[in-house]
Design goal:
Strand content: 5-15%
Number of helices: 7
Helix content: 25-40%
Distance between the termini: 40 Å
CATH topology of the largest domain: Ribosomal Protein L4, Chain: A
Radius of gyration: 26 Å
Number of domains: 2
Structural class: alpha/beta
CATH architecture of the largest domain: 3-Layer(aba) Sandwich
Order of helices and strands: EEHHEHEHEHEHH
Shape: elongated
CATH class of the largest domain: Alpha Beta
Largest sheet: 6 strands, mixed
Strand order of the largest sheet: 2-1-3-6-4-5
C-alpha cells in the first residue's frame, strides 16, 4: 500500500510504502472492538458516589403529625420518595474496578489493525515534517486547512514537539497524543490521524511491531538489568 506524503501546504511530495501484512492484511472488527472496549473501560475511575437519606442536607423534622391529616405517614423530607431526597440503595465508599485485561500481543495487533482501517478509508494524513518554529495556533489552523481536515483530528507528535503541542491545545476538534503511544481507542475516536512520516515509521518498527513470541522473549524498549 502506497500512502501519499504531504507537506505543510497540502502538496504531495512523495509516497510511503506500508506492508498491509504487518497490519493484519484485513480489518478485524471483533479484535478492534475488544481492544476499544478495554481501553474505554480502563479510563473509568469507579469512584462515583451517591447520598443516602442521612447524607442529604436538610431538616430531620417530621413533615406533619402522624394521624388526622388524611395523608400518608411520613417522617422527614429526605426519604427517596421525595424530590431532593437520598438514594434508597446509595453507592458506598468502595471503589469499583472496571478494568479489563487483554494480552499485550492482541492489543498491539488491534492497534495496528485500526491503523489499517484508517488507511483504507483514506483518513491518515502523513506529513513530511510536522514541526513548527513557533507555538502559533493560526499557523496550525492554516496547516489543517491545507491538508483538508474538515472533522475531528488526532495529532500524533513526538514528545519533543513542544511548539506543535502548544499550538494545538486550544483547538476543540484537535486532540494530541504521543506518537509512540498511539492506540486504537484514540484513532477511532477521531475522523483523521495526522502524523509525521518519521514518527509513523518509528511506530511501525518499534515495540508495536512485536506481535509474536518476540514480544515476551526479547521485548523492544525493555530496561536492562542495572538501569
Amino acid at each position: 500500500m502506497d500512502v501519499p506524503v504531504l507537506n505543510k501546504q497540502g502538496v504531495e511530495v512523495g509516497k510511503l510504502a506500508i506492508d498491509e501484512g504487518t497490519l493484519g492484511t484485513v480489518v478485524q472488527p471483533a479484535l478492534i472492538k475488544q481492544a476499544y472496549v478495554r481501553y474505554h473501560a480502563n479510563t473509568r475511575q469507579g469512584s462515583s458516589r451517591t447520598k443516602n437519606r442521612t447524607a442529604v442536607e436538610g431538616s430531620t423534622k417530621k413533615m406533619y403529625k402522624q394521624k388526622g391529616t388524611g395523608n400518608a405517614r411520613h417522617g422527614d423530607r429526605k426519604v427517596n420518595l421525595m424530590k431532593g431526597g437520598g438514594h434508597a440503595h446509595s453507592k458506598k465508599r468502595t471503589r469499583e474496578d472496571y478494568r479489563l485485561e487483554m494480552p499485550k500481543k492482541m492489543r498491539r495487533k488491534a492497534n495496528r489493525n485500526a491503523l489499517l482501517a484508517k488507511l483504507i478509508d483514506n483518513e491518515v494524513k502523513i506529513i513530511d515534517d510536522l514541526s513548527f518554529s513557533a507555538p502559533k495556533t493560526r499557523e496550525l489552523l492554516n496547516f489543517l486547512e491545507a491538508i483538508k481536515i474538515d472533522a475531528t483530528a488526532l495529532l500524533a507528535v513526538a514528545p519533543e514537539a513542544e511548539n506543535t503541542r502548544l499550538a494545538a491545545r486550544n483547538l476543540d476538534k484537535v486532540s494530541l497524543c504521543r506518537s509512540d503511544q498511539l492506540n486504537c481507542f484514540q484513532m477511532l475516536n477521531h475522523r483523521y490521524l495526522v502524523i509525521s512520516k518519521a514518527d509513523l515509521q518509528a511506530w511501525l518498527a518499534g515495540p508495536s511491531s512485536q506481535t509474536g513470541k518476540a514480544a515476551k522473549v526479547t521485548p523492544m524498549g525493555a530496561k536492562k538489568e542495572g538501569e
